[in-house]
Specification:
Elements (H helix, E strand, L loop, with lengths): L6 H10 L2 H6 L5 E3 L2 E4 L11 E4 L4 E4 L5 E2 L1 H9 L3 H11 L5 H5 L2 H28 L5 H9 L4 H7 L2 E2 L6 H8 L4 H6 L3 E4 L2 E4 L4 E7 L5 E8 L7 E3 L15 H4 L8 E4 L2 H9 L5 E3 L7 H8 L5 E3 L5 H16 L4 E4 L7 H15 L2 E3 H8 L9 H15 L5 H15 L3 H8 L5 H5 L14 H14 L16 H12 L3 H7 L3 H11 L8 H32 L3 H18 L2
Parallel strand pairs: 12-13, 12-14, 14-15
Antiparallel strand pairs: 1-2, 2-3, 3-4, 4-5, 6-9, 7-8, 9-10, 10-11, 15-16
Helix pairs in contact: 3-4, 12-15, 17-18, 17-19, 21-22, 21-25, 25-26
Length: 577
């Protein structure tokens, strides 16, 4: 994960960054001993269960079990990739990334130039917003009023107006010290022959702001019949419309919503948010890309596709579903009445109407669209519908989901379930359907058996309550636990290992093992507990080996069985039973 960064450099970064200071910018903390406590920022709670350990420089929530290093915390809070979080913390610690120190003068100049582009965009956003309230921006202001926005809405989204002339922004930014060549590279100016002109003229301006609050570029909506209707900033060193999302700066703060709502345009975003819909983001004048789908996965566990209700919007929703499926990102589709878009609908029905709209899972929506262009009252139409649905169901992996959709298709088409299954090419699931329903046994988040024993041993080792030579990594059941034991017994950095874990569930497993409670307070009792835990682990291992031998015995010859019984007896004698 760390790529070109050395372990030594990352260790230096971790040593310079105070985790409690980083966390306290997001969570109010109170100190108790060498730990700081607060309410977890990753789940809702009233009693603080989130702690920051000043000695280990690790955070952990005893409620939801999220934890890790300062780098992990920034990644989770800011929805950043590893290198993005490292850069942010490096800037905070006044450390240069290795590649910064090694690159030549032209590369250093390129970085400085990008910073100037950010500054130019910020100043341009202020200029556009100020112009909106002047006489020159009256047409744009009236347009926004006509779309149902008020002054508060306009200020909230930083909307603005570009000048009607050819170089109003250019002159303003030149007076602020920005050179025309830089403005051209930032997408704010264009050059023809030896002269520069404004890129955006006579348009309503939507600033595109990233999750860290930096203006990347703009979307401009033309007045009247001018073309193109929407004009986006061209690709620059800091902006690529395939990689970003509009309104991501708002979505970053809406972690608790639990889903994103994806729309196609700026006004749909503004309108839905105006009426109280949270988590709304939009693509930037382009069809959904794989990069945008991956970006959304960092902000929510699910997305609702909220495209126009016309045929074009429905086709776009199907394409979006394909992209989300490829990214294993759960998606639903909001089905608007025919011809309505999100902006029109929310103005007419409000938040309550939006909440009441049907939201189809990916398979259900594809089956809904399978009806398009067919006359289901005819046999040919119904047959084609059944064939289309069977093709859709071939991709369903979950037996329960398959059963639900299959029942619906039987009711809708009248075809026999076995006929449909043969068309799908799936094995019959009737036996599953006829089994009596059983109540699911609730699963406790508390560890039991071997898992508890291994976590307790690792936590006692981490707390120096038991000697390192007592444990052997080979006796632990998971790769994560073995890695922790190895590092704790050899003195290698635990924090470095935590940073290397890219899988969230594995990082949670590691943090659980390092934070098992309660632990013995005295070393003598800790040694007794360790012996009990080791006996539990070894007994489990012996039972597994015994079961394996029993299975082999069933398929063995008489001569082989004699040898296997001898091995089993020796194994139990060795274990002391």
């Amino acid at each position: 994960m760390s790529g070109r960064l050395s372990d030594a450099w990352l260790e230096e970064l971790r040593s310079r960054v105070s985790l409690e200071e980083v966390v306290s910018e997001y969570v109010p903390l109170k100190q108790k001993g060498h730990r700081f406590w607060g309410c977890c920022p990753f789940h809702n709670e009233k009693t603080p269960s989130f702690c920051v350990d000043t000695e280990s420089q690790l955070y952990y929530c005893f409620g939801c079990h999220k934890g890790g290093t300062a780098i992990n915390f920034v990644m989770d809070m800011e929805r950043m990739e590893f290198m993005e979080a490292v850069r942010l913390l490096a800037d905070r610690a006044h450390m240069e990334l290795p590649e910064r120190g090694e690159r030549d003068a032209s590369q250093a100049q390129s970085r400085d130039e990008r910073e100037r582009m950010y500054e130019a965009n910020r100043e341009a956003a202020r200029f556009f917003h100020d112009l909106l309230w002047q006489e020159e921006g009256a047409d744009a202001l009236n347009y926004l009023y006509g779309r149902g926005l008020n002054d508060s809405d306009i200020r909230r989204f930083g909307l603005g107006a570009s000048p009607k002339g050819w170089d109003g922004l250019l002159h303003h930014l030149e007076a602020k010290g920005f050179e025309p060549g830089l403005l051209e590279k930032a997408g704010l100016a264009v050059r023809k022959d030896s002269r520069w002109f404004d890129m955006f003229r006579s348009r309503v301006m939507f600033p595109i702001i990233n999750a860290q609050g930096r203006v990347l570029g703009f979307g401009g909506r033309a007045m009247g019949d001018a073309q193109p209707k929407y004009l986006n900033t061209a690709e620059t060193a800091i902006f690529n419309k395939r990689l970003g999302l509009y309104s991501l700066n708002f979505a970053k703060k809406e972690r608790s919503v639990g889903r994103l709502v994806l729309v196609e345009g700026y006004m749909d975003t503004v309108s839905l948010r105006k009426y109280g819909v949270k988590g709304v983001v939009a693509t930037l004048g382009t069809a959904l890309t794989e990069e945008q789908a991956r970006l959304m996965k960092r902000y929510a566990p699910e997305v609702w596709i909220s495209y126009d209700g016309d045929a074009a919007g429905q086709k776009a929703a199907l394409r979006a579903l394909d992209i989300f499926d490829e990214q294993s990102f759960p998606a639903k589709v909001i089905d608007y009445p025919a011809g309505m878009d999100p902006d029109d609908f929310v103005k007419a029905k409000g938040l309550e109407g939006f909440d009441a709209l049907p939201k189809y899972d990916s398979t259900s929506y594809r089956m809904l669209r399978a009806r398009d262009g067919l006359t289901l009252s005819t046999q040919d139409g119904m047959t084609e519908y059944a064939l289309r649905c069977c093709a859709i169901l071939k991709k369903v992996k979950s037996p329960i989901e398959m059963e639900n959709h299959l029942r619906r298709l039987v009711n809708e088409t009248g075809y026999d379930r076995e006929i449909l299954l043969r068309q799908i090419g799936a094995a019959p699931v009737a036996a599953v359907q006829q089994r009596p329903a059983r109540r699911m046994r609730s699963q406790s988040s508390e560890p039991t058996g071997v898992e508890k024993a291994e976590q307790e041993l690792i936590s006692m080792l981490n707390a120096r309550l038991i000697p390192p030579e007592l444990l052997k990594k080979e006796e632990f059941s998971t790769q994560v636990h073995r890695q922790l034991v190895e590092r704790l017994t050899t003195g290698e950095s635990i924090n470095a290992y935590i940073d290397q874990i890219s899988d969230d569930s594995q990082r949670e497993q590691a943090m659980r093992a390092l934070n098992y409670t309660p632990l013995p307070t005295e070393r003598e009792r800790a040694l007794e507990v360790a012996e009990e835990d080791l006996r539990t682990m070894r007994a489990q291992r012996d039972n597994q080996r015994s079961e394996q031998i029993k299975q082999q015995i069933n398929a063995a010859t008489p001569e082989q069985k004699t040898e296997m019984y001898r091995r089993m007896a020796a194994m139990w004698k060795e274990s002391g039973d």
